[in-house]
Structure formats: structure tokens, C-alpha cells
């Protein structure tokens, strides 16, 4: 038999343990509210980061995941862009790839290939015409060099050689930009966005400035918070600048977390005349993009 005093000690001890766990960031809500009352289940995403590849999609997703009302799918799902594979499995397959969420939380996934794949806007629209979309963009010239840096790193990791940036991006005889080369046309943001606007209204699509997310993540995240009608829960101290990485990382009560080493690679040197040619190539598309979005960026 427990004495009265032992019971009091046990009770106080349990409260102390719970408080310590909460201080260390553990979610103990499930201990006092049953899963069924808060409807804990897998849901289709109410918000998708659709692109653009190499513009900061992973940083955006993980930073948004810091918000208590956002739950993110860790992997890129590629459901809507993989015709013969995943899309054929049906929407239930997709739902099962999503994290569990409570009522009122936003489920989010990111697959950058959605932005440039022709069939995807219609497919996402048929899943949910009211879905919110996030598009993060960056200077298309740096985006292209970043894409090349990734190809180069992957080849080197497999002990393979990689053609030069110049030979991949420019035609050998004429020196013209290979506009038909996927890494090049990915940066023609206005063309892709037009296809999305055939299915979604402009106010369903929020554009995130990639360079700004690098410089000051908090400010860009607050804009997304507003776009998604989330309660304001971001604070500046959730993000800290890591000098070694040269990027902002996330902080919780116990530790910090930076993105993996494949994010923020050193870019290979590209000759200035090639960069100038690429700037000329992208300029009309950039301007069309600024017109459609009603936004301007410091790349032109
Ligand atoms: N906080 C933080 N940490 C690290 N990296 C950051 C961060 N914020 C933005 N970025 C930029 O993200 C670029 C990679 O973009 P993505 O995540 O969209 O790449 S991918 O398409 O998923 O492969 C990556 O591009 P590169 O610098 O060219 O590697 C980064 O510039």
C-alpha cells in the first residue's frame, strides 16, 4: 500500500518529468488529449511547394516545418509528375505518403519537378482546386549554375567525368544558348507559371524570393505565414546564421540543425562572357515573369 506521502512524491515527480520533457520540445499533447479527439490522421496536402528546382525548396520546406501548425512530408513524393509510376497508384497512395496531422494543421510536401511538368497543374487542381501553392525563385542564371554544380558533384561521386558548363549549355557552332536543354528551360519561369495560372488564381500562388530566404529567412517565412492564414508563431531566434556553412540554420531548445552538404555547394567558375550571354537570354522571360507576378527581383 502506498502511503499518502509516497503518492504525493510520485505525483510531483511525474509533473516534473512532463515539464522537463516539454522544456526539451517533446510533444506530450497526446498524453492528455486522445488521438481521436484531435483527429490525428494522414491528409492530402493543403499546400504544396511546386518548385523551382535549386532555388531553395528544401530550406523553405524545413523552415516552414518549424511552425507548430505545419507538418511536412520529408521526402519528395513525385506523385503528380511520374506518369507511369506513382500517379497511376491513385490519390489514396499519395495520402498515405503524408505525415500525420491534427485538425487545423497544414500538411505540406515539396516536389520541385511539379513546376515544370506539363500535366501537373491540372492533376493538382483535380485533387483540390483550393490548394495553396508556393513557388520559390532565384536568379535563373545562378539556378542554372547550381543545377550544373549538382550534376558535376554527382558525376565526380561516381568517378565519372562531366562535360564543361559551356558545352552543356551552349551550342558548339553558333554559341547559342540551348533553350531546349531542360536545365536551361527550367529557368524560363514565366512560361511555367502561365500553365499554372490556367488552373489556379494568382492569389492561390505565393512567390518566395530565394535570395531573400538566404539573407533573412524570418522575413520570408512571415509572408508565407500570412499567405496560409497561420497564427504568427515564427520568431527570429528560431534561425541562426552558421558561419561555417554560410547559411541560416534552425534552432530548437536543445540543438541546431543545418541543411545537408548538398545544399549550398561551391559553384564552379563560369566565364563572365558566358554569364552575360545567359543574362541576355533570360531577360525577356524575367520581365514577363515580373509582369505576371507584379513583383520585381534584383535579377533582370
Ligand atoms: N538555409 C539554407 N541552407 C542551405 N542552402 C540554402 C539555404 N537557403 C537556401 N538555400 C539554397 O538552396 C539551394 C538548393 O535548392 P533546393 O533545395 O531547391 O535544391 S533541390 O532542387 O531540392 O535539389 C542551394 O543552392 P546552391 O547554393 O546552389 O547549392 C542554396 O543556395
UniProtKB/TrEMBL annotation:
<keyword id="KW-1133">Transmembrane helix</keyword>
<dbReference type="InterPro" id="IPR000863">
    <property type="entry name" value="Sulfotransferase_dom"/>
</dbReference>
<feature type="binding site">
    <location>
        <begin position="54"/>
        <end position="58"/>
    </location>
    <ligand>
        <name>3'-phosphoadenylyl sulfate</name>
    </ligand>
</feature>
<feature type="binding site">
    <location>
        <position position="248"/>
    </location>
    <ligand>
        <name>3'-phosphoadenylyl sulfate</name>
    </ligand>
</feature>
<feature type="disulfide bond">
    <location>
        <begin position="249"/>
        <end position="258"/>
    </location>
</feature>
<feature type="active site" description="For sulfotransferase activity">
    <location>
        <position position="54"/>
    </location>
</feature>
<dbReference type="InterPro" id="IPR027417">
    <property type="entry name" value="P-loop_NTPase"/>
</dbReference>
<feature type="domain" description="Sulfotransferase">
    <location>
        <begin position="45"/>
        <end position="283"/>
    </location>
</feature>
<keyword id="KW-0808">Transferase</keyword>
<keyword id="KW-0325">Glycoprotein</keyword>
<dbReference type="Pfam" id="PF00685">
    <property type="entry name" value="Sulfotransfer_1"/>
</dbReference>
<feature type="binding site">
    <location>
        <position position="146"/>
    </location>
    <ligand>
        <name>3'-phosphoadenylyl sulfate</name>
    </ligand>
</feature>
<feature type="binding site">
    <location>
        <position position="138"/>
    </location>
    <ligand>
        <name>3'-phosphoadenylyl sulfate</name>
    </ligand>
</feature>
<keyword id="KW-1015">Disulfide bond</keyword>
<dbReference type="GO" id="GO:0008467">
    <property type="term" value="F:[heparan sulfate]-glucosamine 3-sulfotransferase activity"/>
</dbReference>
<keyword id="KW-0472">Membrane</keyword>
<keyword id="KW-0812">Transmembrane</keyword>
<feature type="transmembrane region" description="Helical">
    <location>
        <begin position="7"/>
        <end position="26"/>
    </location>
</feature>
<protein>
    <recommendedName>
        <fullName>Sulfotransferase domain-containing protein</fullName>
    </recommendedName>
</protein>
<dbReference type="InterPro" id="IPR037359">
    <property type="entry name" value="NST/OST"/>
</dbReference>
<feature type="binding site">
    <location>
        <begin position="263"/>
        <end position="267"/>
    </location>
    <ligand>
        <name>3'-phosphoadenylyl sulfate</name>
    </ligand>
</feature>
Amino acid at each position: 500500500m502506498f502511503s499518502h506521502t509516497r503518492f504525493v512524491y510520485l505525483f510531483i515527480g511525474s509533473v516534473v518529468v512532463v515539464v522537463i520533457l516539454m522544456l526539451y520540445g517533446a510533444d506530450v499533447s497526446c498524453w492528455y488529449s486522445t488521438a481521436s479527439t484531435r483527429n490525428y490522421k494522414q491528409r492530402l496536402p493543403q499546400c504544396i511547394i511546386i518548385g523551382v528546382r535549386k532555388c531553395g525548396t528544401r530550406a523553405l520546406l524545413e523552415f516552414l516545418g518549424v511552425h507548430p501548425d505545419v507538418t511536412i512530408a520529408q521526402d519528395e513524393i513525385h506523385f503528380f509528375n511520374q506518369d507511369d509510376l506513382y500517379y497511376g497508384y491513385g490519390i489514396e497512395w499519395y495520402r498515405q505518403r503524408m505525415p500525420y496531422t491534427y485538425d487545423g494543421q497544414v500538411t505540406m510536401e515539396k516536389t520541385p519537378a511539379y513546376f515544370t511538368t506539363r500535366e501537373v497543374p491540372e492533376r493538382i487542381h483535380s485533387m483540390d482546386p483550393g490548394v495553396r501553392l508556393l513557388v520559390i525563385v532565384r536568379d535563373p542564371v545562378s539556378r542554372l549554375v547550381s543545377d550544373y554544380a549538382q550534376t558535376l558533384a554527382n558525376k565526380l561521386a561516381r568517378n565519372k567525368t562531366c562535360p564543361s558548363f559551356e558545352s552543356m549549355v551552349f551550342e558548339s557552332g553558333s554559341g547559342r544558348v540551348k533553350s531546349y536543354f531542360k536545365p536551361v528551360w527550367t529557368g524560363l519561369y514565366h512560361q511555367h507559371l502561365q500553365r499554372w495560372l490556367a488552373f489556379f488564381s494568382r492569389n492561390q500562388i505565393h512567390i518566395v524570393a530565394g535570395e531573400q530566404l538566404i539573407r533573412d529567412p524570418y522575413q520570408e517565412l512571415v509572408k508565407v505565414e500570412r499567405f496560409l492564414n497561420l497564427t504568427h508563431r515564427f520568431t527570429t531566434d528560431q534561425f541562426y546564421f552558421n558561419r561555417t556553412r554560410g547559411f541560416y540554420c534552425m534552432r530548437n531548445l536543445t540543438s541546431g540543425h543545418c541543411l545537408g552538404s548538398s545544399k549550398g555547394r561551391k559553384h564552379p567558375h563560369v566565364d563572365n562572357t558566358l554569364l552575360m550571354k545567359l543574362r541576355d537570354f533570360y531577360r525577356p522571360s524575367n520581365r514577363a515573369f515580373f509582369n505576371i507576378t507584379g513583383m520585381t527581383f534584383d535579377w533582370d
